[in-house]
Amino acid sequence: MEWIYDSWPWYIAGPIIALVMMALTLFSQSFGFSSNLRTICTIVGAGKKTDFFNFNWKSQIWNLVFLLGAVIGGFLSISFLSSGDTSISLNPQTVESLTNLGFEEVGTSFLPQSIFGIEALQSFSGILFLIVGGFLVGFGSRYAGGCTSGHAISGLSNLQLPSLIAVIGFFIGGLLMTHLILPLIL
User: Fold this and answer.
1) Of residues 106 and 162, which shows the higher confidence score?
2) In the chain, domain spans
3) Cβ atoms of residues 150 and 31 within 8 Å
4) Are 130 and 120 in contact (CB under 8 A)?
5) What gap in Å lies between CA 22 and CA 14, rounded to an integer?
6) 3-state helix, strand, coil in the chain (%, to 5)
7) Overall pTM surpassing 0.70 (yes/no)
8) Cβ atoms 139, 7 nearer than 8 A
9) What is the rounded CA–CA span in Å between residue 45 and residue 60?
10) Tens of pLDDT along 63-110?
11) Which of 133, 107, 108, 137 minimizes the C-alpha distance to 120?
12) CA separation, residue 158 to residues 26, 151, 167 (Å)
């Protein structure tokens, strides 16, 4: 028997996020996924080459467990808690704009197969798009001192001005990418 659920309403998910943030604050921890990349690099020995990776990675095991839980939770959700239908409701103007940019089957899944599918790895432009995008995300999260989840959830809940500035920058960058740069690339 397959159990299918809808996303949790804000009045349930919001307080759960608030409780997690209070617990992290209580234990002097901060939330964010990009710090896991630093921890993984340290575990595999990057600290021998660069001081940035030379720290006590064992203090971040809780964050690695959180990362593992997110991966396992995502797998369990898509495998056992969803109907298998990954189509999403999009504004008709968004569908039209993405179709004009060359995306096929807009709204049929969360991720466009033309960018994230196996066929993207079979073309030079697809590989280049993923490598440059990955580099920019990695560089951006390091330059900003954290990722979007770290700043927007953890930093803003702690009323940190640098996080507010970073989140504003993330939104401006996203808008510039969406409306100016992406149409030029595609």
Assistant:
1) 162
2) 1-84
3) yes
4) yes
5) 12
6) 70, 0, 30
7) no
8) no
9) 15
10) 899 889 989 988 888 777 776 666 777 888 988 888 888 777 788 877
11) 133
12) 12, 10, 14
Find where tokens 């995300």 sit.
Answer: 137
Reading the block at residue 107, the tokens are 């709204």
Within 8 A by CB and 6+ apart from 20, the residues are: 31
- The dihedrals phi and psi of 168, each to the nearest 5 degrees, come to -60, -40
Pull the structure tokens for residue 45: 């020995």
What does the chain come to in residues?
186
Q: Is the pLDDT of residue 139 over 50?
A: yes
158-161 contacts, C-beta under 8 A, 24 or more apart: 158/25, 158/30
Residue 38 CB-half CA count within 13 A: 22
What is the secondary structure of 115-170 as a DSSP string? HHSGGGGGSHHHHHHHHHHHHHHHHHHHHTTS-HHIIIIIIHHTT-HHHHHHHHHH
